[in-house]
Input
Amino acid sequence: MEMRNLSKDFEDLLHKEFKVIATIGLAECDHDFQSLKQQLEKIKKPYFEPDERIVFIHAETEYYVYDDRPGLTMINLFNLLTELDIPLCFTLLITNHWQLNSLGIPNIFCSFQKVIVDEPSNDIVDLDLNVDAIAHHMICLNGSSRPHRTALVSVLKAKNLIERNLISYSSV
Output
């Protein structure tokens, strides 16, 4: 998989910091972890160089069975890496699932955080927040229709929370 979900600047930064030996989009393997296993078996080595990384991009729906554990995709990925004896320190997980950072997953985020800290963007601008100008309690963006999104919007509707918030959904 090409790094099409990443900005060009971020992709360049990854290649500057690491020798990326593979980039794998988990959304493309989520329905068939056997195909992911085959990809990983092809790139598995008896040892990795210190700067080598297998990059996993995880920006798709995740199903959390428990609040204090990784979701099913991550559990399956960790089990597969363990089975193939690929150490987590040679992987790099790029995700929009912020809750993974608080679950104590060992070393998987260390390199990613280093990249962000070592190379701050010049595009970041501090903004003064005017709390009095906030018109809505929340924004709930639902791109494509999925069962968990339908359930969420149904709960919001049942609790009369749609009118005070900005909700995107095809049937709201």
